[in-house]
């Protein structure tokens, strides 16, 4: 009997991706609630792909009898993580002042004309600005680390999907 690598089983890979995503989210929540670093809107957006990958992993584990579903959800996980890397890279650019953030990042539009407009603008302004680095290690911000982590997990998801595709193709060829 041929020894199979665990990576060609979508359940194994989906579980690892879900655990890694939960770890990243736990770290973000630790920084927020234990250390007091309040997230900006881009920080919050970067959490969404990890939640999606966790959901894809749970679905893969629950519906393991649908082999093709697990393979497709590995690709979806890879795409979600690529999107997360894109959001994080955009955030790095905002932090480095390479480009402006979104209007939700504290960028101001036109100047208020009345006291009511000024009050509404102040109340609607985010507490945390996107263009200020709240924490960094070795000169790399959390968003910078998120780019690296998201790309690595995305590559892992795509490699696992490819291995699952090859496994399926080989088993059909010799069946």
TrEMBL record:
This protein's UniProt keywords: Cell membrane, Membrane, Transmembrane, Transmembrane helix
Pfam families assigned to the protein according to its UniProt record, in alphabetical order: DsbB
Assigned GO CC terms: plasma membrane
The protein's name: Disulphide bond formation protein
Membrane-spanning ranges: 12-35, 47-63, 72-92, 143-165
Compartments it resides in: Cell membrane
Gene name of this polypeptide: dsbB
Cleaved signal peptide residues: none
Main location as per UniProt: membrane
Alphabetized GO MF terms: protein-disulfide reductase activity
Membrane topology listed for this record: Multi-pass membrane protein
Biological process, per Gene Ontology: protein folding
